[in-house]
Amino acid sequence: MGEWEFYRIPGCGADEPPFLWTWQCRHPDGNVVAPSETFRFLLDCVAHAKLHGYRGGPLRTRREPSRMTPLRGSAPALRVVSARAG
């Protein structure tokens, strides 16, 4: 299906935590699907991804923009963020 990634982004408000979680799914055809929402907790983020096809196979988490740690996940999703030409 696709490779799922769960990652943190900086919070931007005085009442927000220092970071928020979001997810994306990269499909073999090059399309990237991601939600417009962000989540305070990783478990809420994963629960939302499950509503959009995540089934717990190979996934990646990213705590720092330059570092990635493989885990497990798979499946389709929401809006297309980008697509490879070809």
Please provide a written account of the structure.
12% of the residues lie in helices and 38% in strands. The chain has one helix and six strands; from the N terminus they run E-E-E-H-E-E-E. It has one helix spanning 42-51; strands spanning 3-10, 19-26, 32-34, 59-64, 67-70, 79-82. The protein has a six-stranded mixed sheet, covered by helices on one side. The longest helix has 10 residues, at 42-51.
Summarize the amount of helix as a percent range: 10-25%
Number of beta-strand segments: 6
Query: Can you tell me the overall shape?
Result: elongated
Distance between the termini: 19 Å
CA radius of gyration = 13 Å
- Encode the helix/strand succession as letters: EEEHEEE
Question: Could you list the spans in which at least 5 consecutive residues all have pLDDT below 50?
Answer: 65-86
Strand count, sense and closure of the main sheet?
6 strands, mixed
Task: Give the strand order, joined by hyphens, for the main sheet.
Answer: 5-4-1-2-3-6
Q: What is the averaged pLDDT score?
A: 75
Q: In percent, how much strand structure appears in the residues?
A: 35-45%
